[in-house]
Amino acid sequence: MDHAMEQGTGEPFGAQRGGPEDAGGQDVMGQASGVPGDVLSQAAPRRRSFATTDPELVHDYAQRVFGPAVTVRAEDPEVRLRIEGIRTASYGIAEVLLTGASVTVEPHDVVSVARVLSGSIDWRRGRAVDRFGIGNVVALGDLDVGHWSRWRDASAVVVTMTGELIQRVTIGDPEGGVRRVRFTGHRPFSAAAARQWLQTVSFVTDSIAHEEAATSLLVVGSAGRLLAATAL
Q: Residue 78 is inside which H or E element, if any?
């Protein structure tokens, strides 16, 4: 049955950035309160649940939720999509199952990191081509860089983070004139780094899924900063 619900409650990857270009730009609200601006801008997390076997609904849902930058196209007669997760204004964590379809992501302001749980994912970003299998941790998408993937009976835990969140963790102020962060690869630089990422995702998921903690802007915002810092 098709349904949707939202309710309140390769190469190793690291990051690189350029040097300062402009000393201007201040987060007056964050400075006045002593609390990071991204914490103040957070709202309570919202749960996301959707499932369908209708190719048109798969496409429409992707466009409605993720915007025109994301296109899901049926590649096989049988297509299935299921998403269960939680999202905030600047990051989200979801378990995604996708069968018989490809995903084209145009350049946009989101980083996505996935851990494959089942099946396999063929992936292409620029000249980089790879196939990910069970247990792999990978950076599917980088800021302002498009990519393509083909999900073959695959499921994965996918974490998305906005460019603003990444920039705040890196330089403190996303409008402070420093060049954008870029990942230098699409796989963790070590097994220890992959384990640290998985532990962080588990910790953040438990933290923001807890009803009382989810109402705390400090908890929600700090959890996002922890995710971004671990990814970098």
A: none
